[in-house]
Write a structure and sequence with these properties.
Largest sheet: 7 strands, parallel
Low-confidence stretches: none
Order of helices and strands: EHEHEEHEHEEHEHEHEH
Strand content: 15-25%
Shape: globular
Mean pLDDT: 97
Helix content: 25-40%
Distance between the termini: 21 Å
Bound molecules: 2-phosphoglycolic acid
Number of strands: 10
Strand order of the largest sheet: 1-10-9-6-2-3-5
Structural class: alpha/beta
Length: 240
């Protein structure tokens, strides 16, 4: 894994944007795997800036998001579909029909997950998968467990994640208890992976990533099996 240590959050987001911009310019019809959360907001702002400056064209880009709460209405302002529209899709010239987020309102989650996985393959696979990481080492909603699942599936949120995500809701009881998420193999199928890590709270997760250990207790540690992973972190997450 390649590690880039930056001074602060803004510098991480600039580097991440540069890598993403280069990929879009080299392959205008590329397929991006996208995360939600507070981490990538700076990256999305930088991509919007580049688009507004007339230097970036998303008209042929396709995207697949990592995950979505279940159940949740896509119109709900806490849904990941809402987040993506607000922070990125509505601000650039991507065709909204080329953006996929698992449907948190579907009637049959198993069918939704199977179709989602198939859609990624049919599109030709993800060129660049951008990831954040949970304090507990989760990626997407692949939570620490004895067993992890390979492909897109429905899963339960851990108490740790419910607690971490409750900051976006009025109270923690409002956080949906389930989610639809790409699995470990769905993520590992991507050509290139870019992991963004910022803030002190992610220090332990980052240290496990940098150690030699691979464990389902820190799902992100499985990324060591991938041959093209770049971690961009800030000093706050890297230093004790
Ligand atoms: P955060 O979430 O960017 O809001 O810290 C990351 C994650 O849980 O994957």
């Amino acid at each position: 894994m390649k590690l880039i240590i930056c001074e602060n959050y803004d510098a991480v987001m600039e580097q991440a944007a540069q890598i993403t911009i280069d990929i879009i310019k080299n392959k205008p019809d590329c397929i991006l795997g996208l995360p939600t959360g507070s981490t990538p907001i700076g990256l999305y702002n930088n991509l919007v800036k580049e688009y507004e400056a007339g230097k970036l064209d998303f008209s042929q880009v396709k995207s697949f998001n990592l995950d979505e709460y279940y159940p949740i209405d896509p119109e709900n302002d806490q849904s990941y579909r809402y987040f993506m529209n607000k922070h990125l899709f509505n601000r650039i010239n991507i065709d909204i029909n080329n953006t996929r987020v698992p449907n948190g309102n579907c009637e049959d989650p198993n069918q939704e997950c199977a179709e989602y996985e198939k859609a990624i393959d049919l599109a030709g696979g993800i060129d660049l998968q951008i990831l954040g990481i949970g304090n507990n080492g989760h990626i997407g909603f692949n939570e620490p467990d004895k067993n992890l699942q390979a492909y897109t599936h429905m899963t339960k949120l851990t108490e740790n994640t419910i607690e971490a995500n409750s900051r976006f809701f009025e109270k923690s009881d409002d956080v949906p208890r389930k989610a639809l998420t790409m699995g470990m193999a769905s993520i590992m199928k991507a050509e290139k992976i870019l992991m963004l890590i910022t803030g002190k709270a992610k220090h332990n997760a980052l240290m496990t990533l940098l150690s030699d250990n691979i464990t389902t207790d820190v799902p992100a540690s499985l990324l060591k099996l991938h041959t093209d992973v770049t971690i961009i972190c800030d000093k706050a997450s890297y230093e004790e």
